[in-house]
């Protein structure tokens, strides 16, 4: 695979350090190989599931840890010293698998069922970061409000109440 040179991008961007670190990690060769095998599934708009095949591991031999934007899954089997294997085809070696998580993605559940470690994730975007609809006013709306306020002022003046004119409007004073 050809090397990717991101140096020109680094010279012209500010604040994207996290993105470049993710890209660099994605392009590195995974030393862990493909053990243990896993699936990443998407369930709906904001729900995800990671399923790892961890046959032979007990729940106390597995560890699921989250750090900011990172999920780490570790497994280490405790061997039984008195067992003599004639053939050993079930892998039971220690492993550590890391998953980069997007902002606002958190683990909500982890369970072991039928030799599969199932990790449920959900993306919860805070209300302050969700898109919001902004109402658009038109000139007619602004003009209608100005006309209403002028007529209210004139109505108060006709009823004998003193009021100050709206700014920019000329008011004639009549002598009695």
Structure explained in plain terms:
This protein has a domain at 7-79 and 88-129: Immunoglobulin-like. It is 20% helix and 27% strand. The protein is built from three helices and seven strands. It has helices at 7-11, 17-27, 139-158, and strands at residues 38-42, 47-53, 62-67, 70-75, 95-100, 105-113, 116-123. The strands form two sheets. The chain has a four-stranded antiparallel sheet, with no helix packed on it. Strands 3-4-5 form a three-stranded antiparallel sheet, with no helix packed on it. A hairpin with a 2-residue loop joins strand 3 (62-67) and strand 4 (70-75). The protein is elongated, with a radius of gyration of 33 Å. The model has no long low-confidence stretch (mean pLDDT 79).
